[in-house]
Structures are given as C-alpha cells and as structure tokens.
Amino acid sequence: MTLDAHITTGTFAQAIGARLTGDANLPVRDVSHDSREVAEGWLFAAIAGEKTDAHKYVEAVMRQGACGIVSERARPADFAGAWLQVEDARIALARAAAHVHHHPSRDLNLVGITGTNGKTTCAFLIAAIMEAAYEKVALLGTIEQRIGQRRSRAERTTPEASDTQRFLRQAATTGCHFAVMESSSQALDLHRCDSLEYGVAAWTNLSPDHLDYHKTMEDYYLSKRKLFDGSTGTRPRLAVINADDEYGRRLIDELTHTSHETPVVTYGLNEKLSPRPDTTATNIRISLRGMEFQLDSRAGTRCFTTPLVGRPHVSNILLATSVALAFDVPLDTIAHAVATCTGAPGRFEPIKHAGDFVVIVDYAHTDDALSNVLETARALVADTNGRVITVFGCGGDRDRTKRAPMGRTAACLSDVVILTSDNPRHEDPLVIMRDVEAGLNDESLKDESLKQGATPYVKIPDRRLAIARAIDEARPSDFVIIAGKGHEDYQIIGDQTFHFDDREVARETLAARGL
Prior knowledge:
The protein is of the alpha/beta class.
C-alpha cells in the first residue's frame, strides 16, 4: 500500500526519533512487526519478545525487499541497508505505523474500551448504535474485525500497532466516520495502543484476571489506566467510567483530582452512590426474553428494551449510551438501536430447542464474569423449582490464581457443577481441575449464610461428554450454563487446535435426544 512517496527512511527516522545509519533516501511504503508480510519498501520492526527474537528474520525480510530495520540494537557491521536504532522498538513501531498511515485516528471518531469483562458486548452495542447514526462503522475486537459489512475473524483482542493503524486507515479511506476497539491490558502495556487519538476512552470494570502476566492487581490496574492517563502518547477527549466498580471509582478520583485534562462521564446502577452517576437505570425488569428499564441521563429519560439478559448487560448499555451521547446521538436513536441489538455471540446466548429447560452458552472465564452469569440464572429460576447446572473449566498456561475462586463461585451459585476441560494447552487437564476443586471444596461454603452442605459436582475431562451429562441432568425449568468458551469454535490441546464449539455440541446433544 503506497501512501506517500515523500516518506523516506530519513524523514521517517526523524519522525519517530530514530538514529539512522545507512541510506536515508529509500522510500517507505509501510511498516510491520511480522516478517511474513514484509514486502518491497516496507520497514521491519525487529522486536525481541519472550518467545521469539525477531532479529533472526532480518536477512529474510531484506531478501523480501524491506527498505530497512527498526531495532533497539546497533546496526550490525555486515548490514547493508537502512538501520533505524530506537530506545524502545514497540513504542517506535506504534509511532512508525501512525506516521506511515497518516494518523488515521485523527480522521475517525475513535472509542477505546478497556476492562476485565464486558468489552466485547459494549463494542457490539456501540457499533449498533453508531450504525444507526452513521452509514458505516469499523469495529476491532475479540470476536471480529469489521469495516461496514466486511467482516474477518479476529486473531487477538487488540492487534499489534502496525495492524491496528493499517486497519483504521482502511476504515477511514472506505468512508467510516466512527470506529470502536477493545483495548486489552496487555496491549496497553505493550504499546499497541500508542499513538492513537481516542475521542472517548471507556472503562467497564476490573476483577482478577491475567495475573500470570501482570502478577498483581495494582499492575493490572495501572496497565489499563494507560488508556486514560496519557501514557499512550495522547489523552482521550472524554472518559466514560463505571462508578459501580471499585477501580472505576479510583480512576474517576484520579482523573478528577489529579488531572483536569480529561473530562469524565460516569455511569452506574448503585443508587447509594454520591454523586449520582451521570447515566443510570431504574425499574429494571428481567426475563429470559430480555429486559426493560428506565434510563436516566443528562440528555433525558427513556424507557429502554433489549433482548440482552442480566444486570451486567444493563451496565453495558449504560456505557454504550454514555459514549453515544458524547457524539451527540439522539436518545431515541440509541434506544431503537439497543432494542434490536442482540449483542455479541457467546454472551449469555440461549440455545434454542424443544425441551422444557434452558441451555445457555457464555464466555465467562473469570470469577467475576461467572458470578454475573450464575446470579442472572438464579434470578430467572427464583420463582420456579428450577436448578442451575453449571459446566465449566479453566484454561491451561494461563492465570492459575482464578481457578479456585471460580470453583468457589460455581459451588455458591449452582445446584450441580460439572467440572470439565477448557483449553488445557500444555497443562494436564486433571491438574487444572484439581486446582478448581480447591474452590469447590472450600469449607466456608458450608456456612449457613451461603449454602447448607457441599454442592454436588462431578469431574468429566471430556468437554463433549460433560455438556451431554449436563443436558441429561436437566429437569423442567432448570438452567444449564455452559461457561468459559462462548463464541470460541476451537479447543487447544498441547500444540494442536481442534474444532470445538459449545453451541454446536449443545445443539447436537439436544437433537440426539429429540429436542
């Protein structure tokens, strides 16, 4: 993609603050961290990561026609091309990508969403609302990358900076006025969101997750705060923050009292909060068919309806509404879009069948997310004799600290638990399940304030058999919750990835039973 014939290795080095050795007059067409996509006239950012040192691909990309290398290291004596030495290769990659693509975020109304849970649903809601207000919208997130009606599967929640800037330039060039993206903590920490100019940065919540990477909740929080505090190189024009969330309130306080550069809009459901959130909801009525509630905002009050189910989704709608109002979208337009948006795939997604019980697939893979899903199910069975039957597992090679808490949550809020495998990767599924069992067998669960006695559970490592067992266990009015994978259509075992979709498996199991 030739964007500007006047960008040369020399002007490029000056723009990103690099020390150039070699030819300064070579034209630069693009930049990438991925050696496989480097073509003639591209710069290659050689990043030494935890698993791979990209410097080993320098010779290969030069044979592919690369015009030069961006690196933290000094130019090797035997290197003949342009070498741009920088202090931090990741920061340089973000700056370089923004420069070569002419800062596409300046040509878009860009929204970044961060938080542990709810990012994907919020992104889908915001996209639906803005599609009602604009003709074409771009979305970048966990499930898909979307420009208008063109969709492709996402490889990760937040791509590398070079991919993101290229995507946003394509969006702007093809007529998008608005873009929304999920901004993960790792992406923020690794500078993938640097040099993006956000119109709005939004905060959903923070609960334990990714502590294998961040080590502490404080580090996890500080990584996500970078979306708001200028660490990415720019500050958002507005922050939308969940006042119900403990860390959200901390962020509100820090932005309000230590910085006056970023205005804050709050949202929340807690009626005891003072001051009252700017956007809130009352008179919430929940059924399996959806929800109704009254939304109160600075723009006015409206009755909202939605096919989404559960109080967390009310919170997601408040965030999406707050963002849309920041771009002057009328409240009536917002309410209409929310009424027709079914949300993201695999988020409290019902599996249709002819039986007299309910089957739900959800992406919940943290303690907090699982709690939200199971509390929603418990509320829906409260007036019946129905039970909550939970199927879940935990991923391997990931944060082990959340396994026992997830087990404890499942035991607290389920009537029957079927413990199974998720994506074990390189870990033994039985070892993972043993970690979860510590929570299932927590002695405090026998406290009268929680439940009388232990919740019955069974271990079935084969996820397909576990789902079948849960469906076989179901009685009239029961809720079967299949948690952990949601929209994912694969299972990772060792180094191999196999097709596996909880929704497909549930449908096949139900069909085999004549349902």
